[in-house]
Amino acid sequence: MSLPAATVLHPQTGPAASMRRIRAMVRRHWFLIRSSGPRTAELIFWPLVSMLMWGFLQSHLAQTTSLAAKAAGLFVGGVLLWDILVRSQLGFSVAFLEEIWSRNLGHLMMSPLRPAELIGSLMLVSLMKLTVAMVPVAILAYVFFGFNLLGLGLAFAAFFANLVFMSWALGLVSTGAVLRWGMGAESIAWLIVFLLLPVSCVYYPVSTLPGWLQPVALALPSTYVFEGLRGLVLEQTFHGDYMLRALLLNLVYVSGAFVLFRALLESARRNGALVQMGE
To answer: Of 11, 117, 121, 218, which is most buried, counting CB atoms within 10 Å of its CB?
Structure first.
């Protein structure tokens, strides 16, 4: 027996409905973090270990070489900015993987949640996890080594925005790979950002790389962020042109990654891969 027309439910549309669906997704992941001490500890542990290791190395070099003393804070600043990229990308990708591990992805795809809303919620979850991970570590960096990340001022806002945009592009690519190749591609979510570490020039200038590799480095937004950090620390100069180049590259990469994600999602839907994922 069919339901009367008045009782048939239709998905709510409009910006308000979209925001409710996105908020529901974010709250789900917030409850996961809040109710799990190990999850919270894991978010903080690796950035903290990296910061302490590079910070103590910086302190040792500052006592033995004049160049390192002049560049005090460069290693600590570099590792904190690098962890912003890493934690934001993993926050995006792991939130998506959580839906697969709990066998919830198929349910989400059959719900009124749209792909753009799913992506928007993953972006907000990545920012939430990034805040949980980096705020305590940034405070401890100031306590142990006197490095104030917020003291970079406007430059920090530009560094932060470009690294987060890049992390979202990488997150879209890695989650798209999981949609296309299944859980066999899960490791890409953990490895993709570290593949770019040598050519992002986190701890050394682009000129250190071989000539044939420098164009690859200059095609990454992260390279301009770390070059900008060195300019700020060593020359007390903020290179706005670096940040503009990074932003333009990010616009290209995020747009391309979004198109790729949508194409791979539609392919997974047509092939029935969503309901089998995680099994």
So the answer is: 121
